[in-house]
């Protein structure tokens, strides 16, 4: 039985889970685009840039405070090493404690050193945004427990409600009440609070919600999570370092333009993100042989679809930005184009990184992320002063392509699978497409 046949035997479940997760990602894409359009149109390039910088701070702090404990919850929950009760109690205590510590540390840094890149932001907005860090950690830790239960519908519902709240509260703050940046910051706090509450409700029917702490559980979670944490933290910096460096070298309007370009290019992350989520939840429950059979097929087909999607973005980006954001945001088009090749390459990393985490090796691709970050920093320092936001886009794309390639090399060496098998579709893939189309047609006829 060849790889395609083995994969097709488990195809219905994988396809169903990926399809529903992708639908969720599409909803997130649409709702995120609506929120971004509202913010851009009502606040303008400068206001959009300032708000992007404000919400970036708690995102960085939450990423720093995660310590890999979220993905560890998924792994240990899926392998049933610890009970849901143990994971939930520990997660509540960890989120509150770690969130408070990193928030306090950052605010001390902010008020003592008064960093230049935040000088355009009012202090009260920084304080309010930082209050969401524990809320973010609650949501991340607990939603990863839901994912570890393989309750993908519940996991996706958390994202659906969170992003619905984001659009509604953004529209209320800017369109209905015209509250400006200040109103958006308060709306941001309410959005994060909504995320935490809905996650608690999703768990409440399966476990008694209580605070608790078991050092042995924490130690093992940290031991697993820290291996992937460094890579995830470094990768997050790869995603957002360019915005921080633009804030240092350029003005708030440039941040606004570039944030729109990033949002457009990261549309390509939604399919690999959906696939990666299912792969992460699926891999701990299957054999190494099954993973080796299916992963190359999943990776190369995700890459091809991402490439086709990038071509559509390349063609329609200019008109889309003009219609959705207005002519004043047209400077975002060129950096968006420049980001596309890197965004396609990152689909490889997103699939293979989650696959290796599912095998119990979450830190395996950290070398790829570290190398990419090093190149990203050097190129941003060289190119932003000379080329502005286009320079930042070039730096990021080069880093992303390097990350994707190194991830392929590392994955191949650790699994013995050929790199080309993860990149190039073959005749078997075409036969698989034909088989799937035939199956869908038969189902439609029966319906």
From TrEMBL:
<feature type="transmembrane region" description="Helical">
    <location>
        <begin position="257"/>
        <end position="281"/>
    </location>
</feature>
<feature type="transmembrane region" description="Helical">
    <location>
        <begin position="215"/>
        <end position="237"/>
    </location>
</feature>
<feature type="transmembrane region" description="Helical">
    <location>
        <begin position="49"/>
        <end position="71"/>
    </location>
</feature>
<dbReference type="InterPro" id="IPR050833">
    <property type="entry name" value="Poly_Biosynth_Transport"/>
</dbReference>
<feature type="transmembrane region" description="Helical">
    <location>
        <begin position="92"/>
        <end position="112"/>
    </location>
</feature>
<feature type="transmembrane region" description="Helical">
    <location>
        <begin position="332"/>
        <end position="352"/>
    </location>
</feature>
<dbReference type="Pfam" id="PF13440">
    <property type="entry name" value="Polysacc_synt_3"/>
</dbReference>
<feature type="transmembrane region" description="Helical">
    <location>
        <begin position="185"/>
        <end position="203"/>
    </location>
</feature>
<keyword id="KW-1133">Transmembrane helix</keyword>
<feature type="transmembrane region" description="Helical">
    <location>
        <begin position="391"/>
        <end position="411"/>
    </location>
</feature>
<feature type="transmembrane region" description="Helical">
    <location>
        <begin position="160"/>
        <end position="179"/>
    </location>
</feature>
<keyword id="KW-0812">Transmembrane</keyword>
<protein>
    <submittedName>
        <fullName>Membrane protein involved in the export of O-antigen and teichoic acid</fullName>
    </submittedName>
</protein>
<dbReference type="GO" id="GO:0005886">
    <property type="term" value="C:plasma membrane"/>
</dbReference>
<keyword id="KW-1003">Cell membrane</keyword>
<feature type="transmembrane region" description="Helical">
    <location>
        <begin position="364"/>
        <end position="385"/>
    </location>
</feature>
<keyword id="KW-0472">Membrane</keyword>
<feature type="transmembrane region" description="Helical">
    <location>
        <begin position="302"/>
        <end position="326"/>
    </location>
</feature>
<feature type="transmembrane region" description="Helical">
    <location>
        <begin position="124"/>
        <end position="148"/>
    </location>
</feature>
<feature type="transmembrane region" description="Helical">
    <location>
        <begin position="20"/>
        <end position="43"/>
    </location>
</feature>
């Amino acid at each position: 039985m060849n790889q395609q046949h083995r994969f097709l035997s488990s195809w219905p479940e994988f396809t169903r889970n990926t399809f529903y997760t992708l639908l969720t990602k599409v909803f997130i894409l649409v709702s995120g685009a609506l929120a971004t359009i509202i913010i851009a149109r009502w606040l303008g390039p400068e206001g959009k840039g300032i708000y992007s910088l404000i919400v970036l701070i708690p995102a960085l702090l939450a990423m720093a405070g995660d310590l890999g404990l979220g993905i560890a919850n998924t792994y240990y929950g899926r392998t049933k090493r610890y009970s849901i009760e143990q994971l939930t109690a520990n997660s509540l205590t960890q989120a509150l404690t770690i969130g408070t510590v990193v928030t306090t540390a950052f605010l001390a840094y902010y008020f003592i050193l008064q960093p230049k890149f935040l000088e355009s932001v009012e202090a009260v907005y920084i304080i309010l945004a930082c209050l969401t860090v524990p809320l973010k950690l609650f949501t991340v830790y607990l939603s990863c427990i839901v994912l570890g239960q393989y309750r993908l519908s519940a996991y996706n519902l958390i994202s659906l409600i969170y992003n619905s709240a984001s659009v509604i509260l953004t529209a209320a703050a800017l369109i209905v009440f015209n509250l400006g940046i200040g109103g958006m910051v308060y709306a941001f706090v309410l959005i994060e609070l909504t995320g935490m509450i809905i996650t608690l409700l999703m768990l409440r029917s399966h476990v008694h919600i209580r605070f608790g702490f078991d050092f042995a559980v924490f130690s093992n979670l940290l031991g697993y999570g820290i291996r992937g944490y460094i890579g995830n933290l470094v990768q997050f910096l790869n995603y957002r370092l360019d915005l921080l460096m633009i804030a240092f070298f350029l003005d708030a309007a440039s941040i606004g333009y570039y944030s729109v370009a990033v949002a457009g290019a990261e549309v390509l992350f939604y399919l690999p993100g959906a696939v990666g989520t299912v792969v992460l939840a699926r891999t701990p429950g299957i054999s190494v042989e099954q993973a080796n059979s299916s992963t190359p097929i999943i990776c190369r087909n995700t890459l091809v679809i991402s490439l086709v999607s990038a071509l559509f973005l390349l063609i329609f980006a200019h008109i889309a930005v003009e219609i959705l954001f207005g002519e004043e945001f047209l400077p975002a088009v060129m950096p968006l184009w420049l980001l596309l090749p890197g965004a396609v390459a990152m689909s490889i990393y997103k699939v293979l990184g989650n696959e290796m985490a599912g095998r119990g090796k979450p830190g395996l691709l950290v070398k790829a992320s570290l190398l990419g970050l090093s190149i990203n920093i050097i190129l941003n320092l060289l190119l932003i002063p000379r080329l502005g936001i286009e320079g930042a886009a070039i730096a990021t794309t080069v880093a992303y392509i390097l990350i994707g390639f190194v991830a392929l090399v590392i994955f191949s060496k650790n699994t013995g699978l050929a790199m080309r098998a993860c990149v190039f579709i073959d005749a078997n893939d075409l036969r698989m497409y034909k088989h799937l189309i035939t199956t869908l047609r038969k189902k439609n006829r029966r319906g």
